[in-house]
Amino acid sequence: MKSNEEIVREAYRLSEGNVLDGQGFRALFTEDGTFNDVPNSQTFRGDEIPQALAGFASVFPDVHRELLEVRVLGDVVAVELRIQGTHLGEFPTPIGNIPPTGNRIDVPAADLWYLRAGKIERFNCYNAANVLLAQIGATPDFKSAIEAAKTTATGA
Q: Name one GO molecular function term (predicted).
């Protein structure tokens, strides 16, 4: 049986833009396993897991994850990494898609993988979503946020 570290490294290999095997990635999970994109408050289960990989790769088709540190603590594998790629696809937002900019991303992240009996039970991805957005030119609109807060506070 493969070690927990080998299973996690295989998951990263299958999610690379030049490989992208969503079904193979999904097969590494338990039947009820979850992929949690923590900063974006999204949880993917079952067939949603390969769809999440494909969705990200459609925006950054050359996606690569540079693993900086990998630590195994029993059934938990902790990874410090950088998510890299080129913004070549439309980036979906609640109010519309951000057109491709051609900008490179290099986003710091930390992943926690929880395994049970040689399968991934839970994958928690903590990526610096604010860094990614800034790198594709989507900076926060603080003026609108301030105005909305003022309106809410005054009841107008």
A: isomerase activity
How many domains does the chain contain in total? 1
Predicted TM-score (pTM) of the model is: 0.90
Q: What is the DSSP annotation of 77-127?
A: EEEEEEEEEE--S-EEETTEEEPP---EEEEEEEEEEEEETTEEEEEEEEE
Rounded distance between C-alpha atoms, residue 152 and residue 142, angstroms: 15
Question: Which of 24, 82, 91 is CA-nearest to residue 57?
Answer: 91
136-149: pLDDT as tens digits: 999 888 888 888 88
Other residues' Cβ atoms within 10 Å of the Cβ of residue 88: 15
